[in-house]
Specification:
Layout (H helix, E strand, L loop, with lengths): L27 H40 L2 E4 L2 E4 L3 H7 L2 H34 L4 H13 L2 H11 L6 H9 L13 H26 L3 H9 L4 H12 L1 H15 L4 H7 L11 H11 L3 H30 L1
Antiparallel strand pairs: 1-2
Helix pairs in contact: 1-13, 2-13, 3-7, 3-10, 4-7, 5-11, 7-11, 8-9, 12-13
Length: about 325
C-alpha cells in the first residue's frame, strides 16, 4: 500500500474577510452645501411671506400713522400736528358714528355671540346628520358678502319683502326695516349675524366635542339638569375658546362696514347706521381728506389695541 503523499498543498489558506472599517468622513463642504441649499429654500419662502406682510400690512399702518399728522394740498405735503384730530373731533357725525358703532357691537354680541353658541349646543346633541347640519350652518359664510347682503335687502323690502309678507300673514303690522331709524341698526345686526355665525358655530362645536363625557355623567349623578350642566360644565370647559371668540368678535364688529354700506347706503335714515369705518370711508373717498381719515383710523386702532391689551391682562389675572 503506497504511503500517503507528504507534498504540501499549494492552495492559499482560507481567511475570514476583514471587518469593514469606519466609513470615510464626508467632506465638510458637501454637508455645508446641502445645509445651505436647504436653508436657502426655507428662508426663501419665509422672506416672500415677510415681504408680502410688510408691503400689504406694515407699510399701510406706517403710512396711516404718518398721514394722520400730515395734510396734502396741491401735491404738497405739510406737517400739521394734531389738526386732523381736531377736524375729526369737531365733526357732528363723529360722536354719532362712535355711538352707532358701540350700539352695533353690543347688539352683535347679544345676537352674534349667543346664537352661534346655542346653535353649537343644539347640533352637538344630534347623534346623526351632524355633517349635514354643519354644512347647513356654514353655508351662509360661503356666500359672497355682497350677495348675502342683497338677499337681506330683498327680505327687508317694505313692499314685496318676505318679512313683511310673513307679518301680513300673521296679522302683525308691517315694518320699515331699513327706513326706520329705530329698526335700521337691528336689521343690519340680524343680517350680519346670519352671514357670519357659521364659522363661530363650528369653533364652538369643536370645543364642545372635546369635553370629556365623564363630566356630564358626574353632573347627572349629582342631579344637575340641562341648564346646570351648561353653566357648571360646558361654559367652564370652553371658557378659553369663549374668551378668544369674544375678543375677536369685538374687534370685528367695531370695524363693520359692508353691511350698513350695502343695506342702508352707509349713513342710513337720520345717520342711524353711520359707523366709524364708514366715516373713514367718507373722509377718504368723498371729501378727499386723507389726513382726517388716517387720524380717525388711528383713533380706532388705538382703541382696539387698548381694549385687547386690557382684555388679555384681565384674562391672565383670572387664570392666576
Amino acid at each position: 500500500m503506497p504511503a500517503p503523499s507528504t507534498i504540501p498543498s499549494t492552495a492559499a489558506p482560507h481567511r475570514s474577510p476583514a471587518p469593514p472599517g469606519p466609513a470615510a468622513p464626508r467632506p465638510a463642504t458637501g454637508q455645508f452645501a446641502r445645509a445651505l441649499r436647504r436653508n436657502l429654500t426655507a428662508h426663501g419662502f419665509l422672506i416672500g411671506a415677510v415681504l408680502c406682510f410688510a408691503v400689504f400690512s406694515w407699510y399701510p399702518m406706517i403710512r396711516e400713522f404718518l398721514l394722520a399728522f400730515q395734510k396734502t394740498e396741491s401735491g404738497r405735503t405739510t406737517w400739521v400736528g394734531l389738526d386732523n384730530f381736531r377736524t375729526v373731533a369737531n365733526d357732528p357725525a363723529f360722536w354719532q358714528a362712535w355711538g352707532n358703532t358701540l350700539l352695533f357691537t353690543v347688539l352683535a354680541l347679544v345676537l352674534g355671540f349667543a346664537v352661534p353658541f346655542v346653535a353649537a349646543l343644539v347640533i352637538n346633541e344630534f347623534r346623526h346628520a351632524q355633517g349635514y347640519l354643519r354644512l347647513l350652518v356654514y353655508l351662509p359664510v360661503m356666500l359672497p358678502p355682497v350677495a348675502a347682503v342683497l338677499l337681506f335687502k330683498y327680505l327687508y323690502d317694505p313692499g314685496y319683502g318676505l318679512l313683511n309678507e310673513l307679518f301680513r300673514f300673521l296679522g302683525l303690522p308691517e315694518q320699515q326695516w331699513l327706513q326706520d331709524p329705530d329698526l335700521s341698526m337691528l336689521a343690519v345686526v340680524i343680517a350680519s349675524t346670519w352671514m357670519n355665525m357659521g364659522g363661530a358655530t363650528l369653533v364652538y362645536l369643536a370645543a364642545l366635542q372635546s369635553i370629556p363625557g365623564e363630566l356630564y355623567e358626574a353632573a347627572e349623578l349629582d342631579g344637575a339638569g340641562l341648564l346646570r350642566k351648561i353653566w357648571h360644565v360646558t361654559i367652564p370647559q370652553t371658557r378659553l375658546v369663549l374668551s378668544l371668540m369674544l375678543l375677536m368678535q369685538v374687534i370685528a364688529t367695531m370695524q363693520v362696514f359692508v353691511e350698513p354700506f350695502l343695506l342702508t347706503g352707509g349713513a342710513g335714515p337720520e345717520g342711524s347706521t353711520t359707523t366709524v369705518v364708514y366715516l373713514i370711508y367718507q373722509y377718504a373717498f368723498s371729501f378727499n381728506n386723507y389726513g382726517a381719515a388716517a387720524a380717525l383710523g388711528l383713533m380706532l386702532l388705538v382703541l382696539l389695541a387698548g381694549f385687547s391689551a386690557a382684555y388679555v391682562k384681565l384674562s391672565r389675572a383670572e387664570d392666576e
